[in-house]
Amino acid sequence: MAKEIAVTDMTVDQAREALARLSALLGQANRDYHGADAPTISDAEYDRLKRRNAAIEARFPELKRTDSPTEQVGAAPSEGFGKIAHKVAMLSLGNAFEDQDVADFDERIRKYLGLSSEPLAFTAEPKIDGLSLSIRYENGEMVYAATRGDGSTGEDVTANARTIADIPQSIVNAPAVLEVRGEVYMSHDAFEALNTRIAAENEQLEAAGKKPKTVFANPRNAAAGSLRQLDAQVTRERPLKFFAYAWGELSESLADTQMGAILRLQNFGFVINELTKVCDSPEALIAHYKVIEERRVSLGYDIDGVVYKVNDLALQERLGFRSTTPRWAIAHKFPAELAWTRLEAIDIQVGRTGALSPVARLAPVTVGGVVVSNATLHNEDYIAGRDSKGATIREGKDIREGDWVQVYRAGDVIPKVADVDLAKRQDDAVSYQFPELCPVCGSPAVREEGDAVRHCTGGMICAAQAVEKLKHFVARKALDIEGLGTKQIEMFYDDPDLPIRTPADIFTLAERDGANLTKLANRKGWKDKSVANLFAAIEDKREIAFARLLFGLGIRHVGETAAKDLALHFLTWETLATAAETARTAALAWRAADLAEEHERLVAQAEGRRAKVKESRDLAMASHKVSVEAQAAWDDLTGIDGIGAAVGLSLTDAFANERERSEIDRLVDMLTVVSPDAPTQDSPVAGKTVVFTGSLEKMTRAEAKARAESLGAKVSGSVSKKTDLLVAGPGAGSKEKKAADLGIETIDEDGWLTLIEGL
Ligand code: IVH
After folding, report:
1. Ligand 1: centre distance to CA 93 (Å)
2. What's the distance, Cα to Cα, between the start and end of the chain in Å?
């Protein structure tokens, strides 16, 4: 090799030449390292070349190449991706499967907006089967690109996004802040080529006794695997494409309509899907769906349905969002794909709440391009050929081990067993006996009245429940502890020296590791760095949002939305705990009354008389001593919009169960629980309890409620001492009178609109 010139002595031409050579050299080294798993230069030499490249760039910044090695993410796989919080959440879409669902979608929107026969236009466009990406531009320059992640925080894949030709690096005449969203995907051709290349590389790897790489199951996995590459050079070699179809934060609006906005994105240099069309009725949507369905096989990339969006952006704004999906859009999925195969066995899985779920183990079969070897069987009724109401399904055919079954899958949903071929059933096949004992801990598994699912009664003594609860606790939407996933939880659960049996054990892990001198770092599979990372990730979650913690506890019926609602209502953990305790006797009385009612109904039915439901309820209630405070706490709890008796009961149960409670307390003592943000400060209705009554003329009740909530108000259905404001339209009755009696401020619809004007 020619002698290297010192950077300080270089002429401009020598520098340019050196940068070109270094770029080629480092690029090749990267490819050898990652692509073929066969490094050609030492790590030290690699680092030295990179430093030399950076030094030349520092001295001659104007010579920096567009493919400069300094811009490429280094080869440090353990570092992972940075996180980016989305300024505007990235949501998913509700689904439609049949034409009727599309008509319902139109109907729902009309109802919400109070439209009757006015025209209502939509866009219809292919639903691309890839992964969504949000790209942020400031003053026309790309600043970052992030994956969807959990919808609120994604991974920083900026360097990789820069390698995608369909994504402009800079834009002219763009708003100062512009976030463009769309789908990254891989064409069928590129997918085939990639898998062929991997197969060829694998021959060499195998010949060299090395571990082969996995070929991708479908273009979507290939696109995801390629975009989520720590080395952007690898991404560059895998031609990804991008369709723009939405946006996030904007400093100014793009247009008045969805179609107009998409065309602006096209003007900025983005690729938009040419099958995007404005349709003015549900019938026109379905007609375009059929056109797209026909074109599907010849598109050259995977799509799994058609997305419909309300065209008028002002209406989109009014419609807003449910917790995870917009009201103004829906995905009309293509029919599921089917295949026949043999059901080899039925296994029972025990979930976090103790639910026993039957799983079909299948002889592997390809369904719509994906190999399927497991499918859900839902519950024992489904296996027996009945639905949850006792009606026959599959013409009453039951499912047995050894049967030939039809498997279907739609999109990313878990494959299901749809049908059985009785002609192929073995003579000695016996009907499936659903276990009445938990297959993991042996406790009785019982089916409660009206419940389709059998539950293990073992609680925390059941290892399956305990492990599943822990997995739920660390999951993305709960505590989200990096490096502590399904695999690690399973490992730690059975660990003789450093067991994690309950959530609280997670937060004592580091301490126990030191004290017991079990030193995780000395174990196989662990390094100082990975242990330090794990402990840091745990420490990081000692301060945790109220709703995440509550959701993470995995209390039955307390899902993400309920947890958020409860956190917003109670604001502090102590208030929630006190409320749950105080409401206990009222909860028991409620349950007793409910059981008594059910019992009375059944007896009356058998005796052929009319049920005296109220009497039975009252009797059962009276047998419980419920204080005024307990009743008030219960009413307050179950009066929260979206929180019913089911949540109320399991919440009060959890806080009353000695064992569960002491675990919760032990955990909470080690944490700092962060209260939810106070509702929008600059709103005059923030934190107020509002009741709507009578008929509203300028908006529907649903819209009024959603809008009030988005401004931080609590919307309640009934007037009580806690009500701050009553909005009464024409025809308001008893509620208006009650409000007047209680001295509660009452305004009409116009008064309400003036109050929230401009917000
Ligand atoms: S619109 C607020 N349009 O589907 C809604 N999504 O199931 C924003 N997707 O996460 C999404 N093609 O990754 C939209 N033409 C399209 C799409 C599309 C594919 C994906 C997207 C989203 C998922 C929702």
Report:
1. 7
2. 69
* Superfamily of segment(s) 1-63: Helix hairpin bin (1.10.287.610)
- Percentage of residues in the chain with pLDDT exceeding 70? 95
Q: How far is the CA of 702 from the centre of ligand 1 (A)?
A: 25
Alpha carbons 455 and 432: distance in angstroms, whole number: 18
- Residue 236 CA, ligand 1 centroid: distance in Å: 24
Which ligand 1 atom sits nearest the alpha carbon of residue 276? 15
Rounded Cα gap, residues 635 and 638, in angstroms: 5
Q: What is the pLDDT of residues 668-689, one digit of tens each?
A: 999 999 998 766 667 889 888 9
Q: What is the model's pTM?
A: 0.60
Q: What is the CATH number of domain 338-446?
A: 2.40.50.140
Distance CA 498, CA 518 (A): 8
Which is the catalytic residue, given 3, 127, 277, 333? Answer: 127
CA dist list (Å): 559 to 99, 281, 449, 489, 547: 31, 36, 22, 21, 10
Whether residue 91 has its Cβ less than 6 Å from ligand 1: yes
Query: Rounded to 5 degrees, what angle do the CA atoms 218, 220, 223 make?
Result: 115
**Mean pLDDT, rounded, of the chain:** 90
Residue with tokens 């690096």: 169
- Residue-wise pLDDT tens digits, 141-183: 999 999 998 888 899 999 999 999 999 999 999 999 999 999 9
- Whose CA is closest to 566, among 553, 582, 554, 550? 550
Pocket residue to mutate for ligand 1, from 134, 135, 183, 270, most atoms within 8 A of Cβ: 183
How many residues are listed for the chain in this entry? 759
Instruction: Name the residue with the closest Cα to ligand 1, atom 23.
Output: 92
Q: Domain locations in the chain?
A: 1-63, 64-333, 338-446, 462-541, 547-674, 689-755
Ligand 1 neighbourhood includes 183 CB (under 6 angstroms): yes
Joined tokens for residue 575: 């208030």
Query: Which CATH fold would you assign to the domain 64-333?
Result: D-amino Acid Aminotransferase; Chain A, domain 1 (3.30.470)
What is the pLDDT averaged over residues 634-641?
90
How is domain 462-541 classified at the architecture level of CATH? Orthogonal Bundle (1.10)
**Pocket residue to mutate for ligand 1, from 97, 132, 271, most atoms within 8 A of Cβ:** 132
Nearest CA to ligand 1 atom 12: 127
Tell me which CATH homologous superfamily contains domain 689-755.
BRCT domain (3.40.50.10190)
Write out the two tokens for 169. 């690096």
Distance 627 CA to ligand 1 centre (A): 51
Is 127 an active-site residue? Answer: yes
